[in-house]
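Example record used in the benchmark description.
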Amino acid sequence: MNAVKTRVVCCMFISMAVTMDAVGGPAPTPKAPPESPKVGEPAPALRFAGLLQAPAETKVDWTSLRGKVVVLEFWATWCGPCVRSIPGMNKLEAAHENDPIVFIHVTDEEESVVTKFLKKTPMHGWVGIDDGGKTFTNYAVNGRPKIAVVGKDGTFLGWHDPRFLVLEPDILEEVLTTGSSDRLWPIQGEHDDPLAGVARRDPDGGKTRNLCDIVIRRSDTSSAKRQGGGDSSGNWSFDRPIRKHIANFCDVQSTRMIDTVGLPEEHYDVIALGAHGSSPAMREAVCRLIGATFELALVREKRLMDVFLLATLPQREPTLTPSWGGVYSDPETHLSAPSMEILERMKNGDNYFFALCPLSMLADGVSRPAGKPVISELGDLPETADDVYSFCFPYPAEEPDGFLRALEEHVGLTLTPAKREVEVLVIRPARPATSPIGN
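Model output (structure tokens):
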């Protein structure tokens, strides 16, 4: 079967089902993983191996927490959107310092990794070290960052996203006052099932739930809502060419991709749903499956390339604007900006560079408008290097050096041409072929 010409190009399902054990007898039926909590029902249990930044002898169970609203944020130190949300969440938590509300940031990473991260990037509230992923599983978390809100009586109230919750701080005020808010989401992320229309393997009549779904399919462009869109954690995206999916899931800048094949321009949907959402292991699995589907070899190697070196201007400190996480987005154009005024300008055709990131990550952000890989040579960064800053300025895209001049003028940083050995992702045919992929 020609993989490209079918609507559902590739599906990988891992389901729990009755199997035979090594000696030939029926193995016990595994217990199905918990479903996502339902609004109005008791919140699932919290299972932590450690609790950081909480008072000594603090107990974390719904009996001990009764009488307080609890905001659970599911996050990770490696999750870019999670890290960019920290300044906004810190301000939100500070605003509720004297209210009966507890913020618990839940991660499934090692405590030593989290402790090292917190020394450079302070977070308010408690930080829960998940006990072997049990809390993530109890809440059926399918991506991060995610927020679950639990009422004073231990009732699950709904979901939200930290990047959007900081823009609507009155939601928590409403929960504190009335005990609920209809602006919380009853399910995680989008209200539409991203796998709608895909036949799921159901070996036992619905008694088990797929533990992992990875789907690559031709885009259905009749669904305008999905064109070019995706969820906030990178678990799925719609109506994009394969090269953009490769850049996303393989975590590589477009300027560091070398296409020796001629990737097809047709648009596809790539969807990855698993127990731990957008984890590195899940993203690696998606990259391998994209390669297998389109008969590609995705190889990382070092090459000598033309690059830009990012450095400070002599006798000038960089202009850094701390960000509290506020972002305004347009669902139709997928443009984002730090204010509605700038967003409207962008929608009217003005070119703006906009990034929310630590100074240490800015080199990756400027590589696309610069048109080449960018290597940071900022030297010893200040102690605040891991704080998140807002970089937003207009630039004349039609002028060859327009972005470089704008970066110098507005931020006080310079890009100098050079040659360096950099790691790139080379896209090659997986085997000799006589026709382009997709035919």
